[in-house]
Structure formats: structure tokens, C-alpha cells
Amino acid sequence: MLIFNHSSFLTFTLMGIPGLESQHLWLSLPFFSMFLVILIGNGAILFLVATERTLHTPVYLLLALLMVADLISTLALLPKLLCIFWFNYRDIASNACFIQMFFIHGASVVRSAILVVMAFDRFVAVCKPLHYNTILSHSFVGRLGLMALAKGVILILPMPLLLQRLTFCHVVIPHTYCDHMAVVKMACDHTRPNLIYGLFVILLVVGLDLLLIGFSYGFILQAVVRLNSRDATCKALNTCSAHLFVILVTYVPALFSSLTHRFGVNIPPQAHILLANLYLLLPSMLNPIIYGIKMKEIQDKVAKCLSRGPT
After folding, report:
1. Global pTM?
2. What interhelical angle do 230-263 and 269-294 show, nearest 10?
3. What share of the chain in percent tops pLDDT 90?
4. How confident is the model at residue 40 (pLDDT cuts 50, 70, 90)?
5. Higher pLDDT residue, 103 or 182?
6. 3-state secondary structure the chain
């Protein structure tokens, strides 16, 4: 058995999608299309929020933070994936692999934390509308954003640090990116601490964040039920609709991918890898589309920018 050390000279090989190597060029087309949509959509939202002072409100500042997390995740994943598909360039240094892992998983944790903050924003907007600007001041939103960032860094940084202590028996990773569990399986050391910590992060992020979001919407539903006016009820529900769609787009693919990975014994590995990529990319692609459709202010600003046209 070949034994490789864990020094900075170690190089991993990403296989892409095993069994579909002959289709990599064709598979690159939808992935490149998603890349363009993500860059244009998220970039446009960030540009509007940055340049339009009327959008400097808590909900749009949080939306901008969500777009940044989506862009970081995408930029950490897709350039290397496209290099594999287009140029068959599969090698990645161990340090680069661990950095990619940190940014991909870290951005996912930050995205989830921001969705919790956005749920709190919707709770205040529906249940305490008169105190909205007082509670969600710019400084408070900034502190919440920093807490979301700190959560991503604190929870994910131990993953590559724990991996650096391992000795690796294999260097060919059957994946398109340096997924934590895929890299752990390459080690020949005792990996129980890595497995336990990975499960701890999943339970803490998905479990706790969904619980907090559930509490927020429980209070929102309670407030909506008390409304006597049908118009007021519809307005309150419409206020939350974009955020609810984003929650579904974020957590449903992630949970489906996790369940199929653990219990779908008859599902081919190619499907697992495709699902792992889609659950990272779909939220980044659909979030700006959802908010562009549901938020009238964004529609108005886009129409205003388009109406200016070239002079």
C-alpha cells in the first residue's frame, strides 16, 4: 500500500464525475450556463444594493450578504470544475484542496446563518412593524452579519486543520471538488474525530438553523392568524414569500442529497456527485431570480436602469 504524507507537497487528483468522463465536455455546458447566471444575477443584485440608497434597508443589506456568500461558494467550486471538464486538469495541491473545502463549506454555513437572520427580519417586519427600524438598525444588522461570518469560520476552520494531521493512502478523489467526507475517505489514519466533527457541524448548522427559522415562522403564523383583515393577512404572507422560497431552494436539495448519500444504496455514485454540486449551485442561481420576481423594489430599479439605456 502506498503511503503519502500530509505535507504541502502532497497533490490530490479530482476525478470529476467517475463513469461519465466521456461526457465531461457536454456536462460543462449546463455548469458554465449556471456559472454565468450566478455571476450576472448575484452581481446585478449587489450592484443595485450598492448604488441605490433607497435599498440601504435591513432586508436588502441582508440580501446583499446572502449574494456575497453565494458568489464565494460558486467561485470556490466552478472554476476548478470547469478546468476538469474542459482541460482535464485534475491535480490540486493539498493546501489548495483544503482552502477550497474551507470556502465552499464555510460559505454554506454563512448562507444558512444569514437565512436565520432574514427569518428574524421577517418576524420583526410582521410582528413588530412599528419598531422595525429601531430594532434592525444598520449597526445591528452589521453585527449580525459579522456573527454569521464568524460562525462559518469557527465551525469550518477545524475541518482542514484536522485533515492536515492525517496520513493519506489514496490521492485520487472521486469528486468534482474537495468535499470534506470525500477527502477524509482518502486517509489511512484513524478518522473518527473527523467523522464526528463533520456530523456535529451538520447537526448544528442544519438542525439548529432550521429550528430557529421554524420558531420565527411559528410566531409569524401566530400573528397572521390574529389578523382580522384578509388584505392584511395576504400582505403579511407576501412579505415572507421570497424568504420561504429561498429556504426551500436551500435546504430541500441539501437534505435530499444528504439522505440519498446515506440511504440510497442503489443510487449510482454519479448521481450522488451531481446532487452534491446542484445543492451548492441551485440556491446561488435561483436566489437572485426569486428576489427579482418577488421584490417590487428590485423590479423597479432594474426597469429604471434599463430605461436609461445607452446615451
Report:
1. 0.92
2. 170
3. 55
4. very high
5. 103
6. CCCECCCCCCEEEECCCCCCHHHHHHHHHHHHHHHHHHHHHHHHHHHHHHHCHHHCCHHHHHHHHHHHHHHHHHHHHHHHHHHHHHHCCCEEEHHHHHHHHHHHHHHHHHHHHHHHHHHHHHHHHHHCHHHHHHHCCHHHHHHHHHHHHHHHHHHHCHHHHHHCCCCECCCEECCCCCCHHHHHCCECCCCHHHHHHHHHHHHHHHHHHHHHHHHHHHHHHHHHHHCCCHHHHHHHHHHHHHHHHHHHHHHHHHHHHHHHHHHCCCCCHHHHHHHHHHHHHHHHHHHHHHHHHHCHHHHHHHHHHHHHCCC
pLDDT value at position 124?
A: 93
pLDDT at 305: 75
Q: Of 268 and 75, which is predicted with more confidence?
A: 75
